[in-house]
UniProtKB/TrEMBL annotation, chain B:
The keyword DNA-binding does not apply. The keyword Transcription does not apply. This is Ferredoxin. One of its GO terms (molecular function) is iron ion binding. Keywords: 3Fe-4S, Electron transport, Iron, Iron-sulfur, Metal-binding, Transport. Its cofactor is [3Fe-4S] cluster. Pfam families: Fer4_15. Gene3D superfamilies: 3.30.70.20. Ferredoxins are iron-sulfur proteins that transfer electrons in a wide variety of metabolic reactions.
């Protein structure tokens, strides 16, 4: 048998949408940086232990570009995180410019100012769900809350018409699809064309929104490539809703699949919501791969040599459950003493939408605990429809608060 | 307590503002860290240490 045939093949199958494959525990202990075969069939390294995950995410010897992109290992079969992105020679400068441009619009202070706006939006979603529940007895929190809130917020921030939500949601879903082959890449092209249309329609009347900011910056800076700018807008719209929709769903499932968790939260929503949100960020593990990097030079680490150009799949999901860092690591426990996690990543690529996501999650979970304290799942966890996308999560979240 | 921030390292994540908004802020023009109070009272040490620990760019140093 060749060495390649002995390699682990990603993704490692998980028992359900909340838990990870038990093999991760073995990997963390025995092979924290292990050779694997990606879903696309190429070789890569899988990093699972907290220490190495944090180290690699903060290490500039690892980037997202590749000197010879056509020779680089391909990762997912979706059109997201499928291979290298950006220009190898200018990656760091390009990224720094992008962060400088976008950071003010997503700052903690600005997001806090949006909080009141979010509370009103969440309340109107809940009003509608409560009215529907009176008639039907069961409502879908995914369709009625987890989806519309992040979509509305990212549309306002980016300056995207909210009425386009079905279009870009379906493009996002297909783009991240792991079981639809070439369709995923077609969706990425369609999404690109949609964004070109939007960018050009805004150009005549630029406003106070992130896409307008990017159009202005690109027009003024000859080194800022038009295609890169449009790709960035697509990335922001995709990541700005997809991830939070999933996280709300996973959080509701963590809280409702064990009544004691939900009851403890309901007893003191304002006092506990921040800790609950951080635990949802730590344990919620959407998707089965990780963050993708390519080594820019040879790196010796944890007993292996990662060669320049090698692909590295960094599993923040696995790191966030590392028993050498977290006590009873697999358990959902908002009262745990450890206050940090890698749910938003680490280093130069730390999630730019972290403050937005945190604000949304805090508003959503506090409102649910206050207004629907007797809520429970209307289906078993294993019966829920799981999305076959890179970002994972559930496609439905049926709940009821009718007395049984 | 003495706090030093490195704006050259800062990636504008805003984690420090969330941890201790009486000590850290983000500048309006570029979102980078703005140190409001370089020597806050000792009772702020736990939150300031937390801010330094969660900083994704390790841009905060605390001497106590």
């Amino acid at each position: 048998m060749s060495i390649d045939a002995e390699r682990l093949k990603l993704p490692l199958a998980r028992p359900n949408v909340l838990d990870l494959a038990p093999l991760y525990e073995v990997l963390r202990r025995e092979a924290p940086i292990a050779p694997v075969t990606t879903p696309a069939g190429d070789p890569a390294w899988l990093v699972t232990r907290y220490e190495e995950v944090r180290l690699l995410l903060g290490d500039k010897r690892f980037g997202r570009s590749h000197p010879e992109p056509e020779k680089a290992s391909r990762i997912s079969t979706a059109a997201v995180q499928d291979g290298p992105t950006g220009e190898y020679a200018t990656e760091e400068a390009d990224h720094t410019r992008m962060r400088r441009l976008l950071t003010p619009a997503f700052s903690a202070k600005r997001m806090r100012m949006l909080g009141e706006n979010m509370e009103e939006l969440v309340d109107s979603c809940l009003d509608a769900l409560i009215a529907e529940h009176e008639k039907t007895g069961v409502v879908d929190l995914h369709r009625g809350l987890a989806f519309p809130l992040p979509v509305a917020m990212i549309c306002r921030l980016l300056g995207v018409p909210e009425e386009d939500n079905e279009l870009f949601a379906s493009l996002s879903e297909r783009m991240a699809g792991t079981e639809i082959g070439e369709e995923a890449h077609k969706a990425r092209e369609e999404f690109f064309r949609y964004m070109v249309g939007l960018v050009e329609s805004k150009r005549g009347a630029l406003g106070e929104d992130v896409i307008s900011d990017l159009v202005r910056a690109q027009a003024e800076d000859p080194s800022f490539d038009y295609v890169e700018m449009v790709r960035l807008c697509v990335g922001l719209l995709f990541a700005g809703h997809e991830t939070t929709v999933n996280r709300i769903g996973l959080g509701v499932l963590f809280l409702l699949t064990d009544r004691s968790r939900w009851d403890a939260f309901v007893a003191d929503p304002d006092g506990r919501v921040d800790a609950v949100v951080e635990e949802v960020m730590r344990l919620g593990a959407p998707g089965d791969l990780g963050l993708l990097r390519y080594a820019r030079e040879d790196v010796d680490i944890a007993g292996v040599t990662i060669k320049a150009g090698d692909a590295v799949v960094i599993s923040t999901n696995a790191a966030n459950r590392d028993a050498s860092v977290y006590s009873h690591a697999e358990e959902f426990d908002p009262d745990r003493p450890e206050r940090t996690h890698l749910g938003f990543g680490h280093g130069a690529h730390f999630c730019i939408g972290a403050s937005l996501a945190r604000t949304e999650l805090r508003v959503v979970f506090a409102a649910l605990a206050k207004r629907l304290p007797s809520m429970r799942l209307a289906k078993e966890l294993d019966q829920l429809q799981v999305r076959a996308t890179l970002t994972g999560g559930v496609a439905e979240l049926p709940v009821t608060w009718r007395s049984a | 307590m003495n706090i030093v921030v490195d704006q050259g390292k800062c990636v504008g994540a805003g984690q420090c503002v969330l941890a201790a908004d009486d000590v850290f802020d983000q500048r309006d023009d570029d979102g980078l860290v703005d140190l409001l109070d370089a020597s806050p009272p000792p009772e702020r040490l736990a939150d300031v240490r937390h801010a330094a620990a969660v900083c994704p760019a390790s841009a905060i140093e605390v001497e106590a």
